[in-house]
Amino acid sequence: DDAPRPPAPGPRPQARSMTFGKPPLFNVLEGIEGSGKSTQARLLGEWLAGQGLPHLVTREPGGTAVGEAIRQVVLHGGDVTPRTELLLMLAARATFVTEVVAPALSQGKIVVADRFELSTLAYQGYGRGLPLDEVRRLNAFATGGLAPDLTIVLDVPAATGDARRARRGAADRIERAGREFHERVNEAYRLLAASE
């Protein structure tokens, strides 16, 4: 098999530790396109509301005016290089942390995000072949070191994700990247879930 293999995960920036007995405040759902992240985030938000817990359900890239504009460029713009794609995603993340996540956490809200740092490692690192150490370093700069308390990777076969995406209609730029790309990303999520 001549297909490129994902490199082994490298060192990770220091993450916040979770206090025993305290619920995770910054929760992230990760996975390939069509894995059910948005649905599970919505359902978790509904459950938190039913429990009377202050929370925020959001997505990334997005969640801010800058993030939504970048999302449009990344998903529906013309071709961009992998490095440009990475820097756009991290610009959206820096704004997302500053304007959405940090304020919500400081107000004691539980944050449920559809994507965060593992997406960048999986898509731009493993999927696009950018050096993982550089992706990690730039991500740490963009987040100011903020890391989720809990990350849940929804693992579905790439074929399942493809079928779900097809039912949604026209594919975006990343969804059109091809089966081999999505297989690499899916494998990356498995490796990251086991090592992060």
Topology:
Layout: E1 26-30, H1 37-50, E2 55-59, H2 65-76, H3 82-106, E3 110-114, H4 117-127, H5 132-143, E4 150-153, H6 158-167, H7 179-195
Parallel strand pairs: 1-3, 1-4, 2-3
Largest sheet descriptor: 4 strands, parallel
Label the structural class: alpha/beta
Compressed to H and E, one letter per element, the order equals: EHEHHEHHEHH
Helix count? 7
Percent in strands = 5-15%
Helix content: 40-55%
Can you put this structure into words, describing what you see?
- Helix 2 runs antiparallel to helix 3, helix 4 packs antiparallel against helix 5 and helix 4 packs across helix 7.
- The relative contact order is 0.22.
- The chain has a four-stranded parallel β-sheet with strand order 2-3-1-4, with helices on both faces.
- The protein is of the alpha/beta class and 196 residues long.
Brief account:
This protein is of the alpha/beta class.
